[in-house]
Specification:
The chain has two domains: 3-81, Arc Repressor Mutant, subunit A (Orthogonal Bundle), CATH 1.10.10.10; 94-163. It is mostly helical. The chain has a two-stranded antiparallel ribbon with strand order 1-2. Helices cover 56% and strands 3% of the residues. The chain starts with a helix and ends in a 24-residue tail after the last helix.
Length: 187
């Protein structure tokens, strides 16, 4: 989740100061998601620089509330309405990259990597299944986490089977330089 987008969405309610935004972020995700205060304040600074929020005069307690600009409101509304792709274009999936590299590199132990990752995912899934939050919002976030972990375990099992036939290989031969190779002529 983009902290920036979440803060913009929260600001659609009305002006708020930094700590209030951080608390609302936690509250609206049932505490299942968190934001470090320093990260939140850096994000607010960038959002102000980008023209999506504007500071208001300090309130009676000396805190500076922020409000959305029109650009910020538009960005928040668009973010709230847009579906979320599983993997953003250009984003690297570190686990998929590591598994495919381990399958193709001499000396890498694909089996051990998949076993270790599976054990980690099973442990995290067991903890997630043991949690039974009273808060509906936290339960919804946790249900997403459970589903992701179950999907990861299924993917790892499939990857183990599918990649078991891959033989590690070295560098590809360098491309030929100089004249372009002529097409082969039939004999």
């Amino acid at each position: 989740m983009s902290v920036r987008s979440a803060l913009l969405a929260i600001l659609t309610i009305g002006p708020a100061y930094g700590l209030q935004l951080a608390n609302e972020f936690r509250r609206r995700t049932g505490g299942a998601e968190d934001v470090v205060d320093a990260q939140m304040y850096m994000t607010l600074k960038r959002m102000h620089r980008d023209g999506v929020i504007a500071p208001l005069p300090k309130d009676s307690s000396g805190k500076v509330p922020y409000e959305l600009t029109e650009q910020g409101r538009t960005e928040a509304e668009e973010w709230l309405a847009a579906p979320v792709p599983q993997d953003a274009p250009g984003a690297r999936d570190e686990l998929a990259l590591k598994v495919t590299l381990a399958a193709t590199l001499q000396g890498a132990d694909l089996r051990s990597l998949i076993n270790a990752q599976s054990a980690l995912a099973r442990g995290e899934l067991a903890r997630a299944l043991a949690e039974a939050p009273d808060d509906l919002l936290a339960d919804v976030v946790l249900a997403r986490r459970r589903g992701s972990l179950q999907a990861e375990l299924e993917w790892l099992a499939a990857a183990r089977t599918r990649l078991s036939q891959v033989v590690p290989f070295g560098f590809a031969p360098p491309p030929k330089r100089g004249r372009k190779a002529r097409p082969a002529t039939p004999e």
